[in-house]
């Protein structure tokens, strides 16, 4: 779009040298740049090589005539205002040009004042149209990406890329460490696509076993195997007309990879126990926190499938590479936590926000969300003045889920298996004081759990939810501290 300092370029395509001179004169007088060509081919060449804001196009020219140039513009989707210059006996053709999208036509001899008005109007209308389109784009962006907080350049770049790809049917592979927002981006791409009113079906590839794969992915008919008591629609059929999201695609085993590749190629599925094939119409988005290079090399991931998945790779940077987003995210999570739990608004002290910004966030945004929730639960006033950053020790399993195996994107070291950590922890929390940092961290964790219980009136599901962990993880923690029996006695309300 033209900036104030940039003059609009007006291209004049006419085989008459006299006309080109006359029109150029008027255009320059209006303060615009006049560019001239004398036939249709040169006109098309100029349109492709120069920034042109308005085209004055003679209908009758040697080589490609005005009508052909107009057809070319239409076919190539060039949004450009065109004013046709016609001889007075070409009126019916001129009308035809208007139908093909020309802004206006002027008949020869062209009167200067009429030319001036038409050119000015065409340019201001087109500039207004561009502004409206830009605003519409911004509005759409705000709406679709409203749940994605952050203002860092790298996040904005991700949003820009997602905006570009979302309206296409291209397969997108979202890549990033755990908790960076891969699923959030996948959902946003779906809601900005033409499939937005269709379903968004998520498949956790790590959770699909070979035995159940066919039935889960493609469905089955009643009686096709023991336990198939009714017809079942598989994931791909459920996603018909919408988007299928293959989460943790790097964990998909080789047999299932072959099945998925076939559906991608054929766009057809067959339910278990059924002969007929069904067409499925879906758009594919997948996500991974793994680097595929090694897996492809050692043939645990099919290269042919990988290249289909990553038609458009979208890299979501880890939080430590966009630290400037931390305060905004922390404030957002704090505000939504207070609203959801009917707590008076809370704020973070400046030093806490600084501490959060300096921290490396191995569990990324999910970890930040959990820390904020805990800080809100443990508050002692309206302002939060301290945050225990526990994640690298006792709370790793819920902040950096799923655990980070070697060969992943990012530098997070692999955490210990949960069993090992659980067994090395004291069976109960009644250990003697003075056990150092680990003791203090466990104490802080237990206090957080107890406060969360208080806040939810003893509801285990809600307690797990506000702590950002699963119910089983909460149960394991209670067991670890040897207090689950006491708690279950005191916890009577459970919705
Ligand atoms: N930019 C963001 N703004 C607000 N919330 C975010 C943002 N990014 C992520 N979140 C939130 O953080 C949590 C983790 O995001 P999400 O599940 O999309 O991450 P992920 O990359 O898919 O993680 P994983 O690899 O562990 O599956 C979610 O609760 C999500 O809503
Ligand atoms: Mg995810």
Task: Report what the structure shows.
This protein has 495 residues and is an alpha/beta fold. The protein contains 21 helices and 16 strands. It has helices at residues 17-29, 40-49, 66-75, 91-99, 112-144, 153-166, 182-191, 210-218, 235-238, 254-266, 292-297, 303-309, 326-340, 350-358, 364-377, 396-399, 418-424, 437-455, 460-467, 471-480, 484-490, and strands spanning 9-13, 33-37, 54-58, 82-86, 104-107, 172-175, 200-204, 219-220, 232-233, 243-247, 268-269, 278-279, 283-288, 312-315, 347-348, 383-384. The strands form five sheets. Strands 2-1-3-4-5 form a five-stranded parallel beta sheet, sandwiched between helices. Strands 7-10-13-6-14 form a five-stranded parallel beta sheet. It has a two-stranded antiparallel sheet with strand order 8-9. Helix 4 (91-99) links the parallel strand 4 and strand 5 (104-107). The longest helix has 33 residues, at 112-144. The radius of gyration is 31 Å and the shape is extended. The two termini are 58 Å apart. The relative contact order is 0.07. Residues 1-5, 391-435 and 488-495 have low confidence and may be disordered. The chain binds adenosine-5'-triphosphate and magnesium ion. Residues 182-183, 247, 287 line the site of magnesium ion.
Layout of secondary structure:
Layout (H helix, E strand, L loop, with lengths): L8 E5 L3 H13 L3 E5 L2 H10 L4 E5 L7 H10 L6 E5 L4 H9 L4 E4 L4 H33 L8 H14 L5 E4 L6 H10 L8 E5 L5 H9 E2 L11 E2 L1 H4 L4 E5 L6 H13 L1 E2 L8 E2 L3 E6 L3 H6 L5 H7 L2 E4 L10 H15 L6 E2 L1 H9 L5 H14 L5 E2 L11 H4 L18 H7 L12 H19 L4 H8 L3 H10 L3 H7 L5
Parallel strand pairs: 1-2, 1-3, 3-4, 4-5, 6-13, 6-14, 7-10, 10-13, 15-16
Antiparallel strand pairs: 8-9, 11-12
Helix pairs in contact: 2-3, 6-7, 13-15, 18-19
The structure holds adenosine-5'-triphosphate (ATP) and magnesium ion (MG).
């Amino acid at each position: 779009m033209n900036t104030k300092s940039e003059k609009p370029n007006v291209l004049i395509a006419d085989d008459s040298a006299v006309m080109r001179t006359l029109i150029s004169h008027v255009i320059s007088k209006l303060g615009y740049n006049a560019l001239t060509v004398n036939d249709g081919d040169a006109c098309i060449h100029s349109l492709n090589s120069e920034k042109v804001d308005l085209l004055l196009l003679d209908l009758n020219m040697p080589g490609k005539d005005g009508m052909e140039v107009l057809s070319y513009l239409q076919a190539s989707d060039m949004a450009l205002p065109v004013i046709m210059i016609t001889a007075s006996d070409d009126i019916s053709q001129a009308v035809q040009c208007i139908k093909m999208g020309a802004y206006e036509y002027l008949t020869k001899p062209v009167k200067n004042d009429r030319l001036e008005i038409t050119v000015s109007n065409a340019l201001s209308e087109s500039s207004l149209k561009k502004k409206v389109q830009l605003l519409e784009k911004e509005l759409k962006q705000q709406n679709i990406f409203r749940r994605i907080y952050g203002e860092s350049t790298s996040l904005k770049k991700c949003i820009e890329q997602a905006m570009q790809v979302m309206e296409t049917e291209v397969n997108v592979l979202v890549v990033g460490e755990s908790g960076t927002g891969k699923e959030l981006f996948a959902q946003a791409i779906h809601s900005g696509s033409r499939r937005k009113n269709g379903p968004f079906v998520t498949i956790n590839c790590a959770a699909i076993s070979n035995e159940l794969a066919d039935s889960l992915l493609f469905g089955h008919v009643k009686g096709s195997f023991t336990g198939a008591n009714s017809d079942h629609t598989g994931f791909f059929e459920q996603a018909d007309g919408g988007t299928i999201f293959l989460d943790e695609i790097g964990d998909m085993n080789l047999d299932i990879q072959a099945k998925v590749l076939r559906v991608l190629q054929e766009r057809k599925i067959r339910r278990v126990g059924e002969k007929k094939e069904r067409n499925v119409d879906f758009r594919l988005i997948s996500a991974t926190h793994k680097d595929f290079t090694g897996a492809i090399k050692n043939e645990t991931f099919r290269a042919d499938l990988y290249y289909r998945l990553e038609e458009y790779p979208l890299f979501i940077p880890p939080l430590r590479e966009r630290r400037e987003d931390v305060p905004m995210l922390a404030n957002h999570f704090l505000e939504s936590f207070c609203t959801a739990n009917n707590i008076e608004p809370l704020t973070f002290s400046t030093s806490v926000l600084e501490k959060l910004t300096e921290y490396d966030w191995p569990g990324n945004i999910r970890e930040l969300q959990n820390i904020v929730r805990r800080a809100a639960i443990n508050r002692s006033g309206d302002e939060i003045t301290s945050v225990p950053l526990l994640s690298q020790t006792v709370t790793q399993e819920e902040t950096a889920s799923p655990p980070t195996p070697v060969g992943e994107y990012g530098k997070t070291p692999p955490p210990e298996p949960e069993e090992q950590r659980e067994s090395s922890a004291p069976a109960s929390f009644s250990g003697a004081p003075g056990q150092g940092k680990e003791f203090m961290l466990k104490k802080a964790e237990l206090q957080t759990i107890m406060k969360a219980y208080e806040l939810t009136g003893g509801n285990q599901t809600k307690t797990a939810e506000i702590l950002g962990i699963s119910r089983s993880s909460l149960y394991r923690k209670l067991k670890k501290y040897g207090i689950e029996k006491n708690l279950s006695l005191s916890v009577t309300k459970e919705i």
